[in-house]
Each structure stands twice: as structure tokens, then as C-alpha cells.
Write the C-alpha cells for this entry.
Amino acid sequence: MNSISNIIDWFINTGVLNMALIALIYLTVFALLGLFLVLLERKVAAWFQLRIGPNRVGYLGLFQTIADALKLVSKELTGTVKADKFLYNLAPYFVIVTSLMALAVFPFTKDLQAFDINIGIFFLIAISSIGVIGILLGGWSSNNKFALIGAMRSGVQTVSYELSVGLSLLTMVILTGSLQLSEIIEVQKSGWLIVQGHIPAIIAFMIYMIAGTAETNRAPFDMVEAESELGAGYHTEYSGMKFAYFFLAEFINMFIIAAIATTIFFGGWLSPFGITESLPWMGLFWFLVKTFVLVFLMMWFRWTFPRLRVDQLLTLEWKYLLPINLVNLVLMAVIVWLNLTIQI
Amino acid sequence: METAVLNSTTVKKSNFKSEEYFINMGPQHPATHGVLRLLLTIDGEIIKKVEPDLGYIHRSIEKMSESNSYQQIVHLTDRLDYLSSHINNEAVCLCVENALELEVPERVKVIRTILGELTRIASHTLWWGVMGMDVGALTTYFYGFRDREMINDIFEETCGARLTMNYNIPGGLMQDIHPNFVKRVKEFIPHFRSKLPEYDRLLTGNIIFQKRTKGVGVLSREDAINFGASGPVARASGYSCDVRKYHPYSALDKVNFTEALDTAGDSFARYKVRIAEMWESLNIIEQLIDNIPEGDFKVATNAVIKLPKGDFYQKVETARGEFGVYIISTGNKNPYRVKFRSPGLSNLSLLNHIAVGGKIGDLVATMATIDIVVPDIDR
């Protein structure tokens, strides 16, 4: 008995219990968020496409994706006989775990932040590039030709666009002088960074949104699963919950890309013109509003643009976005050096 | 540019053992629009060879026709190019009527032409939706279907069916038009005139779409003629071949319209030709809809139609190109042999020629602009 209470004490004292609880809350909340995003995407798509969208399960179809998730959980996991079993099973976890890990560093309000490290942005860039390993593993180990082509495209695409995401965020770091996300928000109390940094910040934001969309492998950059070319791309051979992990990860990644943009460019949880400064909890509301506006923007891309071809995708990155980004970086440095930023 | 890439990869294989990579596109594949199987040989993303493999939906319609009466053959042609079913029916009826030297009433001719042009618009709107989907813009599909739905409703009211109409019979039409027909067609014309610019805003003007289609799958005029291409595919290469212009049938000799032509021969040209055809079809319908003559909707024929001995050929312009019906009759109630010249087969035959050297994405875009309907190819 004594030893058990010792273990419990150890858990409480070292904070492992806290950590586990927080992790559990994050998991639940963001799994539900992912499901909600799927529903939102379907509703937005329906709106763009002159349809009604899901409206049968629950009020206005609100439980549609929950029902879908339940179906996927209860489905038999079929796989190919020729697949490399270990890697094949590992791949979806890689994808989902990395996308959930990135959520840890976001400051949702002043106090609601799980993990405030001093290299927040660096952590985000690093984590988001791990996810592609899962896609590569999945495509490679499925032993399917379409999946392999999808995975190879994904590798090419993510490695290229990683640079643009990193550089556009780096442009903003010149302005903030810090990589810590809570610090970056503090800086923005004298004006959101997209206002402070005006022209180079707006260019950086546009490049970031393009590259961010490409990084989540969403249309118009969905070469990875281009359904008219490759069937379903890298997740052709996955079924049931393993497929759902890939699917959910895509939506959580979309949220992450929008959340990074919110934090870096649009003042995170800060309210516009400080209108709700006396109510700290309203920060969560503002954070979500800004993020969902950007999420909507990404959905808008997806449902209006055709897909690029794989060589055009690389041309766009290496011949246009990257040089513009480099020039923009210098421009931002000059602006900060000459103190030309706009402070409210 | 593309050939340069090809050469550099073939030259540099000194120590590197490389194999050709085959992928099976189809028979179940979203871009093959049915059950067409393409055997692709690829090098990375670049296509080396495209081999269409047919036969997955072969129903031996030509053979079946030999044991059916002429009225029954009309019904089988619905199942060839199901998107141009009305025009296919018309072709058989015209062939039989010509053989019998039967003069059908003017009313029938005008109604046939109006319905034929509506069919062409319906087919092209569906093609436009699917074209967008093949290059990754999923929304176009629903916009195309919205307008197609109006035409289908018109068909449903008058012909009783939405896709396989069977409205033509040798000697005329099965029934007279519905009283609402004229009104609804007149409603449709301004509606579609206002929606076609929307198509341009959504897809045609999109820079990504233009990059995907311009200079892709280029077909020269000579090749178009050599491969026996017809319809929008040939006209986009500058080969003027509209059967409606050169061999007018039904009421098409009474209307003024311009043949949509382009000289670029690439996927974008084929796209533009089809969009232009929709405008022209609207013009044709507008000229005829107010001038439907009074009269009978059919002339009486014998219950058992026996064609005189001989060979009979009739060609029409379907949404995909030149569709021909060739009947050899020995004077019986059944034809001795029936051959359908389907536009899809010859248009598909040039796929390998224009897709080689492009990327996988190009193949899909090219195939979409060729606008194949597999049951038309596989009869």
C-alpha cells in the first residue's frame, strides 16, 4: 500500500499528473475541433457549390462528423497483404501525433498556454516538418503505385514550401525580436504585426498563406492526393481509423497554419483596438474568430481554385516565392533598422 | 522544353539501372469517366506511353442491331453516347427515313434540331463540370449540373425521360411537344446566357487553369485529320469539320450560326471551342423556338419497316463529333449489318500521340478536353 501511495505522490509532486491531465484535455478538445472543422468544411463547400450540405444528423447536421467518426472507429481495419506492416501501421500515428504536438505552444489567452518555450516559432516549424515523414512512410510502405507517387510528391512539396513558411515567419521575427509566442503577442499590444510591419508584413502574410496551404497539402496544392490523377494518393490503402487519422491531421494542420498566422500577424488573443481588454477570457473568443476567418480563407481557396501541376508547384516556390521572400526579408530588416514601423 | 527533359534523363543512365514504371489507370479510376483502362508507362511524372485498353463495357450493340427492327435500333443508340442520346436517335431515324425516301414534316425537323442543340448544351455543361473537376476545381461540377438540370427538366416534360430520350422514331416523333415546352426553353435561353459568363469567371479566367491547359496536349491540324478526329477536338486544331455546316440535316439549313474554330490545338483551345459552341447552340435554339411550324408530329410508316436493298449512311454532329450510321439492308425487316462511326473512338486514338512527354496531370487535363464517353467508344 505504501509503495502505491508513494508512486501517486511522485506523480503529483513531479507534475506528471498535471501534464497527463492537460494532455488529455488537449486531445479531447482538439479531436472534437478536428471533427468540427470537417463539418465546417463540408458546410462551406456546400455553400460554394449550391448545395445544402449535411443536415440530417442532429440539429443542422451538427453531429454528422461525430457519426462519421463513430463509423470509422467501428470499421474493420483492412490493409494490403504486401504492405510493410510495421511502417504501414506507424505512419498514421506520425501524422496525427505531430499535428497535435504543435498545438501545445499556442497562447489561446494570456493564461491559457500549455507550454511557453522561448523558441516557440522554431518549435512549430520543426514539428510541422515531421508530419511529412508519416506521409512518406504511409505511401512507401503501402506497396501501391499510386500511393508511392503521392508520397514522393508530398516529400518534394513539403520540403520546398517549408522554406517559404520558415522565411516568412523569420521576416516577422525581425520585427518582434523574439521567438517566444507569448512575447510576440506582448509586442503586438502596440499594433498587430501586420500593421506594424506594413508592406513587408503583408507580403510575408500572403506568402505564408500560400506556403501554409501547400504545407497542409490542400487544394490548390493537393498534388499529394490529387483524386483525378492518383485515386486517393498516399492514403489509398488505409481504411477505418487509420484513414481517419490522416484525415483529421489534415484539418488540425489547417487549424495550426491559421493559428500561427493569427498569432504572428493578427495579434493572437488581443482584441481589435483593445475593446475587451478588461475581460481576459474574451481572448479565446478573439483568437478563435481570427483563426476561423483564416481557416475560411483556406477553404475558399480549396473550393474555387483548380489544382496546380507538380512542376508548376515547384516553379512557384523556387522561382517566385523564395526570391520574393528573400528580398522581403531584407526589406523588413531595413524597415526595422530605420525605425519605419507603424506603432499605434 | 519537355523533350529536353526527356533527353537529359535518357542520356544520364550510365551506371544507374532504371526500370519503366507501369501504372494502371482504371478501369476504376475517377479520371477515366467510366470504365476505360489506360496502361501508362511513366518515368517519374513524365508519361512515356499511353495504351488505352477497351472492352470493359462492350455490349455488342452493332450485333444486336442485326436482329432488331429499325424502330428497336433507335432505342439501342441511346446507350452509345448517352450524353448525346437524342442526336444518336436522330441519326438512325434520318438514315431510315432517307432510305425509305420519306419526307418528314417541317415541325418534326425543327423540334429535332431544337432538342439536338439542347442535348449539345446539356452534354457540354456536364463536360465543363467534369473538366473543372479533373483539374481539381470541384465546384464547377455543381455549377454545370445546375444548368443541365433545367435542360433535363425540359426533356423530362416533353420526352418522358431525362437521359435516354427515345423521342425520335423513324417517320417523326413519338409524341407532340409538351404545351410548356416553348415557354420553358424561352426561360432557359436568358438564364443560360447569364450563367455562361459565370463559367468564365470561375474557370476560364483562372490563371492556374490556363497554366494547366495552355500548350498542353497540342494536336496539329494534319494530325487531327490523320487520326480522323472530329467535333470540338478537330475544330480546336483549325480543322473545319462541322457536319451541321457541311451536310446540314433536319432544320439546320435554315439557321445562321458560326462554326467555333480555334487554331492553337491545345487543351485550352478545345475548352474554348466547347464554350463557344454553347453560345452558338443558344443562337440556333433562339432562331427556331419562335418558328415551330404547325403540323403533324409524325408521318405514318408501316408497322414493319423494310428498307430497300442497299447501303445507307447518315452522319450527324453529336456533342463529341461526327457520328455516322451505316446500314446495309437486304430488304428484310432487320438490317444485314449496322456500323456506328463513333466520334469517341477516333478521338481517343490520338490520346497517346498528344499525351506523351507531358506529366500525369497533363494527361488528365488532356483526356478531359477530349471528352470521351466510354460506352460510345466501347459499343
